[in-house]
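Aim 2, interim progress: modelling of the HQG-bound target.
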Amino acid sequence: LVTVSKFMSKYLRHEPEALGLVLEPGGWVFGDDLLEGAAEAGFSMSRAELEQVVAESDKQRFSFDETGEKIRANQGHSTAVDLQLPDAVPPATLYHGTPEKFVALILAEGLKKMKRHDVHLSTDIAMTMKVGARRGKPVLLVIDSGRMAADGYTFRVSANGVWLTDHVPA
Ligand code: HQG
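Predicted structure of the complex, ligand included:
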């Protein structure tokens, strides 16, 4: 299931065209098209596995639409996509975990979205420390999101509770 989830992340977030997929507004594709693309690419993946990944992914990375026919990644994209998420008022404080080696640069120039569409922020300290630990010793950054909102920065929240913004100033 982890392999299937990584496969889905790759093509729903980063390289849909490599599987013959075009993301619709909102980031949606037909589940059947994803399964067909996988089969043509020689990747073995059943509908049951797809449904299990959507239901059980630890970070709820994927969603079906209300018809159950279309699927999308909730966040994390690098490919051009309009997720059609409305602006939302963030909590007063949000968190971002990053490896220690990036901290000096982030304190100098703020949090940038790097290869992704947005900067990812969280209300969940344990989760954000895990994110930071992917690439080294993690450091927790505490974001004054209340002040950012008051200063006119906009936020959106994905279906799996990740807070998205364009840039966090230094
Ligand atoms: C860092 C996971 C230097 C930033 C998680 C991060 C997340 C800077 C890295 C999702 C910087 C980008 C995203 C600056 C930011 N100078 N480094 N000015 N600004 N950075 O993977 O937030 O498991 O693109 O701190 O749950 O780590 O994939 O972003 O370390 O939601 O579902 O540049 O990935 O979800 O790395 O993680 P990423 P992220 P999944």
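Helices lie at 2-14, 31-40, 47-56, 103-109, 125-132, 145-150. The chain has a mean pLDDT of 96.
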